[in-house]
Each structure stands twice: as C-alpha cells, then as structure tokens.
Amino acid sequence: MGGLYAFLLAPHFAARSARLESVGASPAADIPHINVQYAKPNFFDVVVSRGKLLSPAVIDVHQGDEVMLHIAADISDEFHLDGYDLTAPITPAKSVTLKFSADRAGRFDYQLRRSGQKLGVLQVAAK
C-alpha cells in the first residue's frame, strides 16, 4: 500500500518543487527528487482505492486535445470511459495508461465496469 501513497503524493511534491524553483528557492531537503512527468498538459492520474476515486472527479479538456489517463488501483476491475468506449483492465499489480484524442465534445462518465461504480466525468469543451 505504501507504493500507492507515494504515487498519490508525487504530483503534490512535484508542484511544490516547481513553485519553489520558479521563485529562485531550492526545494526543502525533505522533498524527494521527482521526475515531473505530471506537468504534461492533459495528463491525468486516476487513482482508485477500495473501489472509490481518490482524484480527480472531473477532468476538463478541450475538443481536439490529446489526453492521457494514467490509472492506478488497489483492486481488480475494468476501467471504462463512456462515449469513447475505451476500456482497460486494472489490477493492483499494474497501472495502465489510456491515450486518446478528445474528438467528441460533451460530458462522459468513467467508471469501474464490473462493480458498476461511477468514478468521475470527462468534460470535453467544444472548439
């Protein structure tokens, strides 16, 4: 379970480190060095713990954007994005990344297919 918590905290530490560097300060010694892959536009971590979404509930993008969803979970199920009909098996042992073009405008639910648990919404703003 420790790996999942480290995964959850990585964006926080990366953002804090980036803020400090932008004002000319150096990060505090207690902040680990993190590869700031989370700063990529339209790259979102979807984290599921005990069948519930930890972050984010709403993903906002624009029509035509390239989107990457990095999905990590501590349960086995199938992730499904309505409207785009994208699915991916998820297991505690392996995270998955879905990459797609947001070519349809609207609101699209994403959920765990087997359990029927709604996780959140992808909002695609029209051009």
Looking at CATH, the homologous superfamily of the largest domain is Cupredoxins -  blue copper proteins
Percent helix range = 10-25%
The general outline is globular
Strands side by side in the biggest sheet: 3-9-8-5-6
The helix/strand class is alpha+beta
Number of DSSP-assigned strands: 9
- How many DSSP helices? 1
**The CATH top-level class label of the largest domain:** Mainly Beta
Indicate the CATH architecture of the largest domain. Sandwich
List low-confidence stretches: 4-39
Mean of residue pLDDT values: 77
The share of residues in extended strands comes to: 35-45%
Radius of gyration: 16 Å
Q: What's the N-to-C terminus distance?
A: 41 Å
What string gives the helices and strands in order?
HEEEEEEEEE
The tally of structural domains comes to 2
User: How many strands, what sense, and barrel or not for the largest sheet?
Assistant: 5 strands, mixed
Determine the CATH topology of the largest domain: Immunoglobulin-like
